[in-house]
Amino acid sequence: MSNRPAFADLPLPENALDWIKAAPDGLGRLLRTLEWLRSPGGCAWDRKQTHESLKRYAVEEAHELGEAVDGGDPAKIREELGDLLLQVVFHAQLGWEAGTFDFDAVAEGMARKLWSRHEHVFGAVVAQTPEAVEMAWEQAKKKEREGKAGTLAGVPKSLPALSRAYRLGERAARVGFDWPDPKGALDKVAEEAKELVADQAAGKPPARELGDLLFALVNVARHLGCDPEEALQQTNDRFTARFGTVEELARQRGLETQTSTLAQLDALWDEAKAAEKARG
Question: Which residue range forms the structural domain that includes residue 234?
Answer without folding.
Answer: 229-279
